[in-house]
Write a structure and sequence with these properties.
The chain has 540 residues and is of the alpha+beta class. 36% of the residues lie in helices and 23% in strands.
């Protein structure tokens, strides 16, 4: 019991520290100009307390407004180190030196111009401005705003002046409005603003009080939206016509007829290339198994797969039969695996040598040797053109969104995405290529349902090894292996195990998939309770 009281006594003497941060005061001076723009000056007293930070950042949404002029800032009365990032829908201002950490109370001042912010609403022009924003990471103890009018407009404003506190959609008016003189009005929040809360002001002017908006200013949003719609519609039509003319395959006949044999004219690597149009490391894995079946090499399991370690395999090059002639891409793969005259190599050696950087030659030769004749044009040509168009659209989306119109930016963004999608389906196969693709899809269907027909495979285990490279290429090796579970009674001639384990298809497929993938592809391969402005900030 004495120990218990002693522990409490000791704990009570341990000093506690609160590393909370808070905005002590947020005061904004909003000067309204006759040209319908405003100049904003934010004075922020930010207390880091004991926390060590570099400075603060301020995020100001730019949806429907324009903040493209000079932004200036001070820190404790001197020019601040600032970094400005103009995004698609906001401006982020980061203040502080990346190499200097500060604590305690610091005073910041941010000045920036805002255009297109006073909007015409039926019978009046209105400024609806979120003074503090509602996205600060810390509470704001005191918040206020001073609105400076371009002339004596107190009588014209009359009852068209409001303030709101709370979340962005709040109608709570826990704030005080005081006219200092006929041109200056002060708004003060009567309560502390917690995280997610802010202060908003709305002030209306009779039409004609401020300089009337030009025809362009009155119709700017409609014009930009119309241009954006036109760009999107016309661009989409052009992209479709290009795809339909140069990228659309002949129609695949349905239903797909199940095929029990692989296409005779294609290797396993060629099958997956014609189906996906892209080169992938699985082409190498499937080709290695195919070469083993052809008697060109043998595979020996030196170590079983354990926990997080892949199985270790060794490939041995056999004497090439005189009548045997490899395809050009197969020969290139053999030359890479068994370089400098060696006749054996392990998957660990291949991983250490990072040989995947050399597989580009195999991929290119495979295309020229087996695939090229099945395409109208080289897949990379139209894909590259559409890729460039998509990139230009995305760059244009960024530029237009920041400097002109987010509507046009969004239309270009959508077109850019469409271009990328079309690029993925760009290569157009010939009629013959489409018929071969149908055969591949039929073989794929056969492999998928093979387990249901496993009784038909009795005494036909050779079928498993015949189709296995194609199943690996199509990503269906495990499905194919399950169909033969228990039917494989001995190891194939090209496979050996130092542990004397009988060939188990599912274990073998899983093991080579993870082992080959590692060794082969190791180096390849953000007018009520709302308004403009707002945003928030915090420390960094």
């Amino acid at each position: 019991m004495r120990i218990h009281y002693l522990a409490i006594l000791i704990i009570s003497f341990i000093p506690t520290y609160t590393f909370a941060e808070v905005v002590r005061n947020f005061d904004s001076i909003i000067t309204i100009n006759t040209d319908r723009s405003i100049q904003v000056e934010e004075n922020i007293d930010y207390d880091f307390e004991e926390s060590e930070r570099r400075g603060i950042y301020r995020v100001i949404p730019t949806r429907g407004i324009n903040i493209s002029g000079d932004i200036r800032s001070l820190q404790n009365g001197t020019e601040a180190v600032q970094d400005i990032n103009r995004g698609l829908s906001d401006v982020t201002i980061r203040l502080g030196d990346e190499d200097i950490y500060i604590t305690g109370l610091n005073q910041y001042q941010i000045q920036y111009p805002v255009k297109r912010v006073i909007k015409k609403i039926k019978d009046r022009d209105e400024l609806n401005w979120q003074v503090t924003g509602t996205e600060w990471e810390v509470p704001i103890e005191k918040a206020s705003a001073t609105i400076v009018l371009p002339q004596d407009l107190r009588d014209q404003v009359g009852d068209k002046l409001f303030c709101y506190t709370g979340i962005s959609t709040s109608t709570e008016q826990n704030c005080t409005i005081t006219w200092r003189d006929n041109r200056t009005v002060e708004i003060i929040a009567n309560t502390r603003l917690d995280v997610g809360e802010g202060l908003t002001v709305a002030i209306g002017f009779p039409l004609g009080t401020l300089t009337p908006a030009t025809w362009w200013e009155q119709n700017e949003v409609i014009i930009y939206r119309s241009i954006a719609i036109a760009i999107l519609v016309l661009g989409s039509i052009i992209l479709y016509l290009v795809w339909n003319r140069w990228a659309r395959d002949p129609k695949i006949r349905k239903p797909i007829v199940r095929q029990y044999e692989a296409p005779k004219e294609l290797s396993p690597a060629g099958v997956i290339r014609l189906k996906t149009t892209y080169s992938t490391p699985v082409e190498i894995s499937a080709t290695i198994i195919s070469l083993a079946q052809q008697g060109v090499l043998s595979i020996t399991e030196l170590e079983e797969k354990k926990w997080f370690n892949n199985a270790l395999y060794q490939f041995d090059l056999k004497d090439m039969p005189l009548h045997k002639k490899l395809k050009p891409f197969e020969q290139k793969l053999i030359d890479i695996l068994f370089k400098e005259g060696r006749t054996k190599v392990t998957t660990k050696q291949l991983e250490d040598e990072q040989i995947s950087s050399k597989f580009g030659e195999v991929y290119n030769t495979l295309y020229q040797d087996e695939i090229q004749k099945y395409y109208v044009n080289h897949p990379i040509i139209l894909r590259s053109i559409l890729g460039v168009v998509g990139t230009l659209c995305l760059i244009g989306a960024f530029i237009f969104s920041i400097f002109l119109s987010i509507w046009i930016g969004m239309s270009l963004l959508i077109l850019g995405i469409f271009s990328v999608i079309y690029a993925a389906y760009a290569p157009k196969r010939t009629e013959e290529g489409t018929r071969v693709l149908e055969h591949i899809l039929g073989l794929e269907e056969y492999i998928k349902v093979a387990e249901k027909d496993r009784l038909q495979f009795q005494e036909k285990e050779y079928i498993f090894f015949e189709i296995l490279p194609y199943a690996i290429a199509l990503g269906l090796a495990t499905v194919w292996a399950k169909a033969f579970e228990g039917l494989i009674t001995h190891n194939p001639d090209w496979y050996h195990s130092n542990n004397g384990v009988i060939f188990i298809p599912t274990d073998f497929v899983s093991s080579i998939d993870s082992s080959f993938s590692s060794s082969i592809s190791s180096s390849g391969g953000g007018s009520v309770g709302g308004g403009d402005g707002g945003g928030g900030g915090g420390s960094w």
